Amino acid sequence: MKLCVLFRRLTICILPIVLFATGGRIALAEASKDTPRVFLHDAKQLGHIRATAASDAQSRRIVEAAVLEADSVIKEGPFSVMQKAVTPPSGDKHDYMSQAPYFWPDPAKSNGLPYIRRDGEHNPEIKKISDHEQFGRMGKDACSLALAYYLTGKTVYADRAVLLLRTWFLNPATRMNPNLEFGQGIPGINTGRGIGIIESRPLAAVTDAAGLLAGAKTWTPADQQGLRSWLTEYLHWMLTSEKGNAEDAAKNNHGNWFDVQVTDIALFLDDRKLAKEMLKRVKTRRIALQIEPDGRQPLELARTNAWGYSNFSLDALTQLAVLGGEVGVDLWNYHTADGRSIHAAIEFLLPYASGAKKWDHRQIGGFHASAMEHTLQRAARAYRDPSFKQLAKQIADNNDDLETLLLD
Prior knowledge:
The protein is mainly alpha-helical. Helix content is 50%, strand content 5%.
């Protein structure tokens, strides 16, 4: 989900001019006066890019990158939970289904059941159930296409994004039921776990995509209301179901990603009270419990991919800090009396990302400093610290990546 992990929404008025790429040339199109209603993108920045691409080289570079990314995915999909080759235990293929990635057949059992855990080792069997991969691709592609539409005004991108959203959420023949009862099931043990809720992270990209599509003729008020209804049902399931409660109670990265999803959906649904409540409790239920005074995240360091999970967890916390800007909850500067904070967690990982220290915990998936890149870019903005930005550039896999450009 790489494109749609950016900065908070601010409302401004912009010039009624927008650029779009046509045959390698830059043309003019009429633009909305308002910036998009998005939450993990920086709406003020997007409005500025769209208004200044004719005169600003960096804005033009970002528009071109957005078009390139949209063009690369425009023929993908549409995706649907109905495309999986298996049927969930409910008997309804509209229910999302996936298998726990780190569980393998027990070699001591003739039938391999029950499966046993091998942390950090992906069982290729999970590919037999396509919902997880399809959900991720749908969210990423819809957001990429919607962003290209917003920046260029080209309806071909909006049309394709709308098709993806309608197919996954709205079309009665193809839509996903708004629950994750059968996410990350373990053969021989259960048919689904609360842990599976981490697989609905693409919903944050979906809410931003809807905001970027506002005004597109093909994204109708009925479509917008249909998506709101789906997300209302899913949010209710998250907050009231046994599996949702279990994930909410998670004390590691799973709890953080649960909070990201609930907060983002609440903002989309105009429930600012719920969003604010979720963000306030991040201070005591996530930051204070998960981060040590020296910045370590012990539950992530205990994993076989400790570097990856330390950054994955911090990625969620920094996204929550971005969302906090929506409702006036400052997570960037929150710290406990003994120093537990997002900033401390970043500082703990810095010397490993820079190469000043060698990572001395398990990382069976290979050490990649770039895992910290976008967290550093967000932190550079929040703390106005140019050293964070400099290191992010140093460890980037690709400085022309669209998300990297948008966070620069």
